[in-house]
Amino acid sequence: MAGRADGGPYAQQPHGTDAAWAEQLLDHLRPAGREPRRVVTWLGRAVGATVCLQDGTGGLLAGEWLPLDAAVLADLVTGRISAAALEDGERHVRMVGIRHPEQGPAAGAVLAVARPEPFDRRAADIVNRTACVLELLLRERKLTDAGRRLRRATADLRLAILQLLMVEDTVSARRVAAGLWPGLLEEDTARVYVVEGAPAERDTLAEACADATEGHALVVRCPAMDGHVIVVSPRPAAGDRLRSLVDGRPGTFLGGSLRQRLARTATAYGQAISALAVARFHPDQTAVYAERTHPERLMDPAALRAWSAGVLRPLDILPHHIRGELLATTRLGLEFTAVNAAKVLGVSRNTVRARMDRVETLLGTDLSHLTTRAAAHLALNTEAVQGPYDPDGTAPHASAPVHLGDMLASTALRTWAQDLLGRLDGDGRDLRGTLRAWIAADSNAERTARDLGVHAQTVRDHVRAAEPVLERQLLAMGSDLYEVVLAHLATGALATPALGGANRAQPDSPVHD
User: Fold this and answer.
1) What sections of 167-283 are H helices per DSSP?
2) Backbone Cα Rg of the chain
3) How open is the CA angle 326-327-330, to the nearest 5 degrees?
4) Which residue stretches of 336-403 are H helix?
5) Fewest C-beta atoms under 10 Å: which of 8, 126, 488, 495?
6) Which residues contact 94 (CB under 8 A, 6 or more apart)?
7) Of 18-27, 57-66, 368-377, which one has max mean pLDDT?
8) pLDDT-derived band of residue 32, with 50, 70 and 90 as boundaries?
9) What was the pLDDT predicted at 45?
10) CA diameter of the chain
């Protein structure tokens, strides 16, 4: 095979009056046509040849594979030569190295063109100029890929920070954030916002949220809900900026939490989700979690804290970090479905279940029962808000254990519960009776229907109808439902669960899905 080295794709310039091919080639640089495969296909037609575009390792990027002289190919890849013309008696081949600035003289790709007849000046010009265009397109592709990887890595870091906040590891969250977003989590408190839009437009919505908060907020694509963007911001102006963003965007809604300590990010997230449900019915498509009377605020603070400590005391034998991990996971597992809790935490569903099963075992209780979940939720959130009870072992112990039933029997709490549930009495469909039976059946509509002798859809319709009356989400599980459960316990409509004394008939009983 005869061959010769050429000066490269820049050595020759097109000449003559035939400029149509140059215009066609330039069209491939337009935004809608920037695709190396299309350029290679065009080149094959333009010079009547078989074309191969391969990377430096021999992988085919576009066109058809061609057997090439290994020695010449190695010289092109290493940068010893930039182009070559070969003849083996049956075909004429031109090979051009396509460099990338970051690789120095070495070629990131090689363009090979083979045809039966020799390459005249016009054909050689087309090959060389096409190599220049391919160099630009491949360089753009590398930059685009690098940008995409950078954005993905940044998004993964943001999610990792959120997941650390969700499990109350604020120290690690600040350490991770400090490298890329200095000062982002310096304050001890923040609000959480959830922006909802069409799943197909979420990337655009997330970018708009980042622009609106000017880099002073943690903006995360929710791992559990495809249409949600989570925003954690310590700055008061973030709410106004996000409201302006939502304004005028059909199908876009904003829910915001109260200001919470960073360690209570999971609680704030739950509040934002609750507010988001309300925002769907507001004219301005936004809502902030309403500050209202919560049942725990009507209980004796000292008694509530002592009771919570007693419930959670079996976990005190664990190392601090394991105890914190189990409690944080269980709080999320009670607030959301096990599947969504796993997505938010970045672990598997089985991991969430295993951690919650371990908590069930240590507490000697069964979280498959709705009343028990409500009581456990109360104990876990009490510690989350007030901190561990007597962490140094210096506080005096109560002379007698505190019982949940005693705390629920207070006059203030009973009055609140009667007022709340009394709102349902004005409906002729007996929403109150259906709701009580549904809670007693652990939110299972089919079991409730059998108990009441009605259709399961009727049960769901009644529970759904109770939501706007009580101003609380019920079917979605979480804090709103647990408050309504506690109201039933306070009025005596349901029996008070005995945390720590239940016999678990099924050791692997599932959490709600």
Assistant:
1) 170-180, 202-212, 237-246, 265-279
2) 33
3) 85
4) 338-345, 349-363, 370-386
5) 495
6) 6, 83, 84, 85, 86, 112, 113, 119, 124, 127
7) 368-377
8) low
9) 87
10) 104
Q: Which amino acid is at 139?
A: R
Whether residue 10 is predicted with pLDDT greater than 80 in this model: the reply is no
Percent residues over pLDDT 70 in the chain:
87
Distance CA 191, CA 232 (A): 6
What pLDDT is stored for residue 394 in this prediction?
A: 46
Q: Is the pLDDT of residue 482 over 80?
A: yes
The span from the CA of 440 to the CA of 468, in Å, is 21
Residue with tokens 């070495």: 106
Helix (H) or strand (E) holding 50: strand 50-55
- Residue 95: phi and psi, rounded to 5, are -125, 130
- The answer to whether residues 79 and 99 touch, using CB atoms and an 8 Å cutoff, is yes
Instruction: Answer yes or no: pTM beyond 0.70.
Output: no
Q: Report d(CA 482, CA 439) in Å as an integer.
A: 10
Write down the residue that tokens 């009356």 correspond to: 469
Rounded to an integer, what distance in angstroms lies between the CA atom of residue 81 and that of residue 93? 15
pLDDT per residue over 96-110, tens digit each? 888 876 666 677 788
Cα separation, 224 vs 511, whole angstroms: 17
Instruction: Give me the amino acid identity at 493.
Output: A
Q: Write out the DSSP string of 101-114.
A: GGGTTSEEEEEEEE
Q: What is the mean pLDDT of residues 471-484?
A: 87
Decide if 340 contacts 346 (C-beta within 8 A).
no
Tokens of 408: 């629920």
Which residue reads 């963007």 in tokens? 229
The DSSP symbol for 187 reads: S
- The H or E element containing residue 151 is helix 121-166
Residues in the chain: 513
Q: Give the residue carrying structure tokens 């590891």.
A: 169
